[in-house]
Amino acid sequence: MQAMKKIVSQTVVLPQTDIDTDQIIPARYLTTTSRQGISDGLFYDWRYNADGSENPDFPLNHPGNKDARVLVAGDNFGCGSSREHAPWALKDYGIDAVISTRFADIFRSNSLKNGLLPVVVEPEVHQWLLEHPGARLTINVEAATLEVDDGPSFGFEIEPFAQYCLVHGTDQLGFLMEHLDAVVEFERRRA
After folding, report:
1. Which of 188, 10, 186, 191 has its CA nearest to residue 97?
2. Domain boundaries in the chain?
3. pLDDT tens sequence across 64-111
4. What is the Cα–Cα distance from 179 to 11, expressed in whole angstroms?
5. In b/e form, how buried is each residue of 107-123, taking b as 16+ CB within 10 angstroms?
6. Tell me: the pLDDT tens digits for 124-176?
7. Which ranges in the chain belong to alpha helices (H)?
């Protein structure tokens, strides 16, 4: 996992509420344990027409949004079944953060463990972001702030251990491995 201290990007907006994990990555794409290439199925039923061609009306397909690393989604993003493939698909596509007013608990947990930052904002901030697709912003993971270019700055909450892991580019196992000598010494003293 790469260290994530700051994310500087324009936003891409999906205003729909209750976007569930089956819409993020349909079940037919859950046949792999590899994170590489899984973004081929990201929002597949929305991104593509029945004939397999790109849906030009879907926001991720707009040419100006191809490099956006921040997704602003409607309320209750990531609801539905527990599916680690959902944050994998978003990360593989290039999305580093999702902003909403609420996330499903399991999606939020899976995201943080896989290097995707879920940012919960107040409804008025969320509404402004929905109304200004393509807004450029900076998310400072270390300071837990979101700053709109030439605009206001907002704080957001993030669990300290998850924040540490994101900022240092590690996960739970990596964190334990960083402290292996201390763990071994603790176990030796207990024996």
Report:
1. 10
2. 6-190
3. 998 999 999 999 999 988 889 999 999 999 999 999 999 999 999 999
4. 37
5. bbbbbbbbbbbbbbbee
6. 999 999 999 999 999 999 999 999 998 788 999 999 999 999 999 998 888 88
7. 21-24, 44-47, 85-93, 105-113, 123-131, 160-168, 172-178, 180-190
pTM of the model: 0.91
> CATH homologous superfamily of domain 6-190?
Aconitase, domain 4 (3.20.19.10)
Sorted by sequence, the CB contacts under 8 Å of residue 148 that are 6+ apart come out as 135, 136, 137
Tokens encoding 5 = 């201290």
Helix axes 105-113, 85-93, angle to 10 degrees: 50
Asked if residue 9 lies in contact with residue 140, where contact means CB atoms within 8 angstroms, the answer is: no
